[in-house]
Amino acid sequence: MSILLDENTRIVVQGFGRAGAFHAQQCKDYGAKIVGAVHPGKGGGEKDGTPIFNTMREAVDAVQPAASIVFVPAAGAADAIIEAADGGLELVVCITEGIPAQDLVKVSFALRGSRTRLIGPNCPGLISPGKSKLGIMPGYIHKQGNVGVVSRSGTLTYEAVGQLSVLGIGQSTCVGIGGDPIIGTNFIDVLDLFNEDPATHAVIMIGEIGGTAEEEAAAFIKERFSKPVAAFIAGRTAPPGRRMGHAGAIISGGKGTASEKVAALEDAGIAVAPTPADMGATLAGLL
Amino acid sequence: MKIHEYQAKGVLRRYNVPVPRGEVAFSPDEARRVAEKLGGRVVVKAQIHAGGRGKGGGVKLADNPEQAARLAEKIIGMTLVTHQTGPEGRLVKRVLVEETLPIDRELYLGIVLDRKLERPVLMASSEGGMDIEEVAAKTPELILKETIEPGIGLMPHQARRLAFGMGLEGEAVKGIVNAMLALAKAYEATDANLLEINPFVITTDERAVALDAKMDFDDNGLFRHPDLIELRDLDEEDPLETDASNFNLNYIKLDGNVGCMVNGAGLAMATMDIIQHAGGRPANFLDVGGGANAEQIKNGFRIILSDANVKAILINIFGGILRVDVLAAGVVAAARELDIQVPIVLRLEGTKVDEGKSILQDSGMNFTVAANMKEAAEKVVALAS
Fold first, then answer.
1. Are residues B112 and B224 in the same domain?
2. Across the interface, do B373 and A232 touch by the CB < 8 Å criterion?
3. Bridging pattern class, strands B367-369 and B208-210
4. Which of A204-208, B43-47, B122-126, B362-366 shows the lowest per-residue confidence on average (mean pLDDT)?
């Protein structure tokens, strides 16, 4: 099993421009069931066998998607997410980086109480190795197995996955939750799903400076999570008050430092990798 | 994007937030003219993008226009050191000349994005004029909060709750409630990240006025605000960081001697961390993004090497969609063109990695290729020391 995504998940692509079409093809090649695309103004057409619709309503009526992946540029991305929620989709993965924070406040407001789960924005998406890929990660570095991966970062997640695969440790599902201050799905949401998934035997969680999501996850793990967890926190050397690439990666008012997060994780009995080169080995030590 | 206090007050004035009368001056002459226009006692305030200006000697009172000019002469051109500027301080190029007010009470008002609530939050405290982080640490009960819902905005009853909660009464309540509603509107309408008024004052004649103003805008929202982009002051930014941003590179200068170039923000931070773990100190953060091209790599090198402290460079790339052979060719071309003399250590992983490594070997240049991150960090630290 896996969480959120498998080979039967019906997916539409929102924003079928150059990047959207390229990554949709990569997902398809990996086994994803791409059933359509929404791109206002291109409706009625098709590309490489994928039918294109002007609106999400039309796509829902015609191809019954359960999930979408958003490549719409930042100015229109919040609208695309809310359109997907309006269409009743269960899962929306938003890859787009640079969405204004106040647009995400609106998204958070619009999605409250709805059936739609948002992953991201500003994330690599998710993959259930061997089954389906709903993201921009390189599929070939993954290996099907029993370790759940959840992370705020993109390439650092590839690094962790690469290390696990080299050690012969496969993954159940890898979820990039995104580097923005406001995101749809947080560590705890994903941990909750991994807890219920019989195919996930252990989890590696990759955090970074900024906010308190790692501390909250540590408290959740201490109280409610039954499987072994390894972790890594990026940004031990990051200066305070500076945004380190991700909009959410900032130590502000002395809060959100790596050392606070590492302490909270260790206090919860989580094995924290001392360097990013030890992520795979730290997880392997728990199995 | 941060702006100066006088600019923030200009923005707030447009949303009917009461602010003192005043104008910016770039010279003692201009300061004199503004003081003449205002009449009476004025305050001359250094304009830099950092707090703590008063303690650093950047805020002075003048009894008449002549004195205002003399103070402006002293302040303009001074290097102001505050707890927020670092020891190198910041050169003052402009001052705000403003009327003085008869202050009865100093309060704090601030609007920030609360990541946990996923909403902006208006914070108010009776303890204005002090470091609010200190108030939050020592007496958190003195900071009152109201959540601002999107679409609904701040409601008057929420503002009243804060006003009465701070112990205000009479005309002052009416004044500050209107000011809070206006501040909330300004925050939303400008895509602000942070809007802070410290102190917000109640005068002896019960007027409510924003005596200071700090605004920081969400960079992601700036495309909607061409008028605000014009307020950007490049003098307040690190020139290398500005240079990098022009090429879509995310660069932050640090004080070590190991330069690094990485794709992805998380991996870039982790690379800095492992350099330190190997006993070295990173000279910078540099994220070249997911689709780094030859032009970006060249500019990345150029910017890293503009820092004379850099003694060696570590390139750490986990190419997924980004092809490693394309990247390697870009590195070779840039190293040749820029005639790079410092040692370069590369750690490459991902699509077409073997082709990439042979491009480096065949170049005849002096690259060190490492098998993994740990080895790369150890090698680059050894080469830098």
1. yes
2. no
3. unpaired
4. B362-366
